Amino acid sequence: MAYRLERWSKKQIRKQLQIIRGEVAPTIVLKNATYLNNARKKWLNANIWMYEDRIIYVGKEMPVKLDKTEIIDCSDRFVVPGYIEHHAHPFQLYNPQSFAEYASVRGTTTLVNDNLMLLLNSDKKKALTLIEKLDELPTTMLWWCRYDAQTEFVQEDNVFSYSNMKAWLEHPLVVQGGELTSWPKVLHGDDGILHWMQETKKHSKPIEGHFPGASEKTLTQMALLGVNSDHEAMTGEEVLMRLDMGYTTSLRHSSIRPDLPKLLEELIELGLDDFSRVLMTTDGSTPSFYEQGVMDLLIKIALEKGIPDTEAYAMATYNAARHYNLDDSLGMIAPGRIAHINILESKDKPLPISVLAKGQWVKKDGVNCYPVTKFSWADYDINPLVIDWELTEENLHFSMPLGIEMVNSVILKPYQIATDVTQTEIPDDSYECYFMMVDKKGNWLINTVIKGFANHVSGFASSFSNTGDIFIIGKNKKDMLLAFQELKKQQGGIVLVENGEVINTVELGLYGVMSVKPMEEVIKEERELTNALKERGYLFDDPIYSLLFFSSTHLPYIRVTQKGIFDVKKKTVLFPSIMR
Question: Rg of the chain over CA atoms, in angstroms?
Fold first, then answer.
């Protein structure tokens, strides 16, 4: 299960040795391949032998025994390791299995995944059994261990209990601690999180930070606390500051921060000529972003910006594997590594024409052949959202003086409500809407007004959120109730209502947060929803991230959390949630 030698049994290893001795035939041979050798940063020519999920030999020889061996002539092809997305959030409407398939067919055969959604919603035993089941996919599925919920969470002590954290950190499929969003707590004396950071180090696993806009002094202190990497640099200067301090630094290109072209231009101008401690990430982008590609897109951008091809591919392969101390298993085409291999038409076309994941063809000659997986989510207690309580007009009472104003897709600030919110409808000439956050179990709610979300949204309900609680937004209270009722009927998702009619829905049948549908269908649904919201006055780029981050206290300035409206800077609840 671990990604070192213990992945293979003694019997399997002995059989692999027999292939070298000519006693057993390999399963696949890539003949005459021009491949990227990451150890030398050169393109070399070799024959690559594989047996099941392992690379056995890379060199000039051909096997003695070729019984039933599939031989692929790669004379006019280029071969690189499978790509690694080291910072995946596989819960952005899609689910881990559907994203794994979609990414792998595009060459990203290893995902290092956020565990927050499982940590918040699943029993420890079920969650860890699930990640083991997911790793039976052709895609290598590795995980983080979060230290915090990045929100004010009612059951935080239960979720981040000693037994939960110990079990996650010790699991061999968990390869890092973090991302650490509540680093200010650690700096100001939270020894609970510091304890788990130290435990992470005892297991020889790196810690990833989340330090947007951090000063040199802050970054230095976090390095002393044990943090190894960060993905929040927004300028070339910030990248260099992190590299100068010894951080492994990831360049982000995501749906809300498409920064990679600018970062690379600035780094080249600043004279960076060694990218060996630089990674790249799409940072959990929303579905439609991935139509352009996954890590293949980021490699393509790097190549277009003049990064040498050996460096561009390494940032999405070898550099990531080495950072996680997994380069003996991943990120290289060399004996003993897992057989994640991409076959390219040319060096400047990182979208592969054929992909091997754990030695299986998941794409061959341009055709998706990822194995059909009937995944039984219910076996792991990942079920539709059951809402067994009612919301009535009496619950739609708005009297709070403080509202929330959207600055952009994810930043919220407070403002003083001047609109008459006792009426049943807010006029369309205002960019204000009623706003509710309701406990998914129906125990509490928060009622206020949001400014800047949209000026023509009549009724909107979503169970997609950081905590799985429900947001209801709109100008018309009757349409808001109807949106909630439709959400209840479809057992989770996103619903848009206008003039008493449902005009758009996204069904999210897992926790009310993830879809069971294939990625291509989720992309289509997300685009239709986004277009419908923009037609009704949504001003920004990414409504999915708006929903996700309404509660996220690692962002300024105020948030709507389970405990109430929260001032991020002062760490205080301004207005508490109300019990129903």
Answer: 25
Q: Is the pTM of this model over 0.90?
A: yes
The answer to whether 434 touches 396, Cβ cutoff 8 Å, is yes
Which domains, ranges and CATH numbers included, belong to the chain?
82-330 (3.20.20.140), 393-579 (no CATH)
Q: What is the pLDDT of residues 318-370, one digit of tens each?
A: 999 999 999 999 999 999 999 999 999 999 999 999 999 999 999 999 999 99
Q: How far apart are CA 511 and CA 493, in angstroms?
A: 9
Cβ(84)–Cβ(110) below 8 Å = yes
Residues with Cβ within 8 Å of 359's Cβ and at least 6 positions away in sequence, in order, are 27, 28, 50, 51, 52, 53, 54, 339
Question: Collapsing DSSP states into helix, strand and coil, what is residue 185?
Answer: helix
Measure the CA–CA gap between 17 and 164, rounded to whole angstroms: 40
Q: How far is CA 246 from CA 211, 220, 261, in A?
A: 15, 10, 23
Secondary structure letter of residue 244 according to DSSP = H
d(CA 80, CA 361): 15
Instruction: Give the model confidence (pLDDT) of 169-206 as tens digits.
Output: 999 999 999 999 999 999 999 999 999 999 999 999 99
Residue 256 DSSP one-character state = S
Q: 58 forms bridges with which residues in the sheet?
A: 48
| DSSP label at residue 301 | H
- Cβ–Cβ < 8 Å for 91, 513: yes
